[in-house]
Give the backbone structure.
Amino acid sequence: MLKLLRPAVTRVMTPLGRALARLGISPDVITAVGTLGVVASALFFYPRGMLFAGTLVITFFVFADLLDGVLARMTGSGSTWGAFLDSTLDRLGDSAIFSGLILYFVLEKEPEILLAGVALFCLVAGALVSYAKARAEGLGMTADVGLAERGERLVVVLVAAGLSGLGVPYILAAGLWLLAAASAVTVVQRMVHVYRQAVVR
């Protein structure tokens, strides 16, 4: 779904990319700043129950994940190191978002342990989704299938958290349960996809 929106987002961000390129700012710097912003925002706002404000700030920094790619293409500075750094820091940012929500559930006046567990499951399952693809590609296969890739997972959790911060009841719980199910299905889909490549010939 989000792959269809990427060209439009890229066009919007191209002028900013040009400005950063003129300033000599590298894509790796954008990647690092974006991740630092996501981590700091998620761990500051979410545990305090500031879900809407936190989501707005996190979303701002998440766009750096697109901006670094735009900048790399414009300057021709894309590299293997840059791709590795981007993927690695993506995992850090995702972990911070779910960790912030886990702390929010645990630190409430009436702790919601079940939802904290669901958020933890989403964190682990999301890591497995990414690992399955990376490991498959490392073995010369593909695993780019499934319901919930990183972009979709971020949209679901951020929209649910933001709306919850605006007072929409049950939306965060519904979003996390949906995300947990979709992530689990995606892990299975990728395992089956790799199995067919590796064993069923």
In short: Helices lie at 2-22, 27-45, 51-62, 64-75, 80-107, 113-138, 150-165, 171-198. The chain has eight helices and no strands.
